[in-house]
Amino acid sequence: MNAPEQLRPDHAALLKDLGGAAFLLGERDRHWRLVGLEWPYAFIAVSAAPRANAPEEFLFRFECTGYPRAAATASLWDKAAGAIPPVTRWPNGKIRVPSVFRPDWNNGTCLYLPCDRVSIAGHDAWHTKHPSQCWSEKVGIVRYLEVLSELLNSSDYSGVRSA
Amino acid sequence: MKKMKLFVTAEGSNEDKLLEMDPHAHVKEILSAAAQAGLPVPAEGALVFLEEGEDAIELFEKILEAGIKDDSRIHISRCRKIRVTVHYGRHEVEHPFPPSATVGRVQKWAAEKLLSNEIDRKEHVLEVCETDFQPTPRTQIGTLVKNGKCELCFDLVAAVRVEG
User: Fold this and answer.
1) Which tens digit of pLDDT belongs to each residue from B78-118?
2) Which of B156, B61, B42 is nearest to B99 (CA)?
3) B16 closest CB neighbour out of A25, A130, A154
């Protein structure tokens, strides 16, 4: 008989957090829901406040290599197309939301947030300016989800760009 | 009967634990299960609160009969109420909240008291006084108390955009 396949430590740590109380509590409260997991990617939909012609949730693809010591990096995702959705379907807002969902930042492959592994590089000042939005090894992917959930339910969020 | 899943937090700890409890067990048994799971349950005077509850639940009542349901969120604390003070500029408001109240509930209350514009109210967050720590809206305030002291101080500050 073959030995069970050994998971990489980062994969195992992500699975543990996706089954942990903090993540499941967010699912219970319909702040987010796990849509799928294809290591190293986790597909998670985050609920948004109701706005005209906008979806109830946005799907994100989190790349989790090195989790949780290394932060995840995430982008909006269209699962059917297997690609980042067109910019017209991105969340929009007055000030805070458009500063995060930036098509001009790494071609939209990551979000302009302190908790994002790619975006934090070269932004040392964010550690002191936005400590509550920085990645935490202890909190893990829930930190990133809480930041997104807050943004998409803020009064700054106005719907999608095409609306 | 099927076991109940409970989301449990305790005084002064930011850890959430998922516990499985027999619905016919007494509420008091949540304390020992939480301690076993590694939460810092006070050795004496621990009280159990439901997330929306104003008052502590009777410890010798059965879980099923105490209004606790599958997936309920429970908080353990020695504080019956936490005296919360919120500062905004030169203004200050104060109110006693149960330890199971969320930061989101306190933020909403404080913003209504201190800000006249509705849009402004949603674009302000609570920051723990003399720190740069902004707890998330779903954080239960009892998890923020230090050394069993039943009081908390926040500043109401504008949510700022990420730039630079």
Assistant:
1) 999 999 999 999 999 999 999 999 999 999 999 999 998 88
2) B42
3) A25
Is A22 close to B161, i.e. CB distance below 8 A?
A: no
A52-83 pLDDT, tens digit per residue, is 999 999 999 999 999 999 999 999 999 999 99
Which of the 8 DSSP states describes residue A78? B
Taking the C-alpha atoms of residue B87 and residue B94, their distance in angstroms, rounded to an integer, is 9
CB B123 within 8 A of CB B159: yes
In this complex, which of A25, A29, A96 lies closest to B159 when CB atoms are compared? A96
DSSP string, B42-98: -SSS-EEEETT-SSPBPTTSBGGGGT--TT-EEEEES-S-EEEEEEETTEEEEEEE-
The Cα-based distances of A57 to A72, A109, B40 in angstroms read 20, 19, 36
CB contact under 8 A, B7 and A28: yes
Size of interface A-B (CB pairs under 8 A): 61
CATH pick for B4-77 out of 3.90.550.10, 3.65.10.10, 3.10.20.90, 3.40.50.300: 3.10.20.90
Asked if the Cβ–Cβ distance from A123 to B163 is below 8 Å, we say: no
**Active site (annotated) includes residue A115:** yes
Fold of B82-158: Ubiquitin-like (UB roll) (3.10.20)
Encoded amino acid at A133, one letter: Q
> Please, what is the end-to-end C-alpha distance for chain A in angstroms?
57
Mutate to test the interface with B, among A96, A138, A141 (most CBs of B within 10 A): A96
Q: For B17, name the nearest residue in chain A, comparing CA atoms only.
A: A21
B158 touches A: beta carbon within 8 Å: no
